[in-house]
UniProtKB/TrEMBL annotation:
This is TIGR00266 family protein. Coiled coil: none annotated. It comes from Flagellimonas chongwuensis. SUPFAM superfamilies: TRAP-like. InterPro entries: AIM24, AIM24_sf, Trp_RNA-bd_attenuator-like_dom. Pfam families: AIM24 (PF01987).
Length: 266
């Protein structure tokens, strides 16, 4: 498997985007909704699956694309191909505040395991599939983090970490316990499992999930401080209920703010 060789540069601090430079006939594939901008002479095309199995026939393409349904992703991805004569740029943006992490699969032994919604884009030729677990506990009790994707090949891939990203290099036998949603990804040499936190007080009153991931080295682990599921739950909890207008509870102005806004229906 030979992925296209691409150059890149990451811009920004909190809301980053990655600019990828494509030589003629080079291409990059991306998840729907991550595209930001591109030069002229770049052809945008919707492809079935990730484009890494174009010579495997119809059944091979169906199987490759079908695995993506298990991770909650679309059957289709978007490919961006440079059909011009010179170098062209295409950019992809972070979906929410955080960091874009470049992953050179040739330095990871050809495989990297990541959270199902962490993948942003990759050089064409990189295979994006599901990481099947051999341990039953991961599938039944993993919660938000048990469905993992695997990126395979020898090219560049880019994943997104929400909030602040921590990179941990684990020594052989070293163990790190992580909230399942806070995992961005890890190298294939890391052994992982899902464990029950235990204790009725922890489970009922602790305010955390019932399970955490146990990661055992050797290998590299990437952790995010703000999983999207956590961000979404906080936004949902703060949203007004019942379809009515927010009356300003908890603000300094309170009802006075409604008067100034023209709403005098107390």
């Amino acid at each position: 498997m030979n992925a296209h060789e691409i150059d890149y540069q990451i811009y920004g601090e909190e809301m980053q985007y990655v600019e990828i430079e494509l030589d003629p006939q080079e291409a990059v594939v991306a998840e729907a909704g991550s595209f930001m901008m591109m030069d002229s002479d770049i052809k945008m095309d919707t492809i079935f699956g990730d484009g890494s199995n174009q010579d495997t026939g119809v059944l091979g393409k169906l199987f490759s694309a079908g695995k993506r349904l298990l991770t909650g992703e679309s059957l289709f991805m978007t490919a961006f191909l440079n059909i011009g004569q010179g170098k062209k740029q295409v950019s992809f943006a972070s979906p929410y505040p955080g960091k874009i992490v470049p992953i050179d699969l040739s330095e990871k032994g050809g495989k990297f395991i990541c959270q199902k919604d962490a993948f942003l884009c990759a050089a064409k030729g990189v295979s994006v599939g599901i990481e099947f677990s051999k341990r039953l506990g991961r599938g039944f009790f993993g919660g938000e983090g048990f469905i993992m994707q695997k990126l395979e090949g020898d090219g560049m891939a880019f994943v997104h970490a929400g909030g602040t990203m921590a990179k941990k290099v684990l020594a052989p036998g070293e163990v790190l316990k992580v909230d399942t949603g806070c995992i961005v990804g890890f190298s294939q040499t890391v052994d992982y499992n899902i464990e029950f936190i235990g204790g009725i007080r922890n489970s009922v009153f602790g305010g955390e999930g019932l399970f955490f991931a146990t990661l055992r080295g050797p290998g590299t682990v990437y952790i995010q401080s703000l999983p999207f599921s956590r961000l979404a739950s906080r936004v949902w909890a703060a949203a007004p209920r019942g379809g009515g207008k927010d009356k300003g509870e908890g603000s300094i102005l309170g009802g006075l703010g409604d008067l100034l806004d023209g709403d005098n229906r107390f």
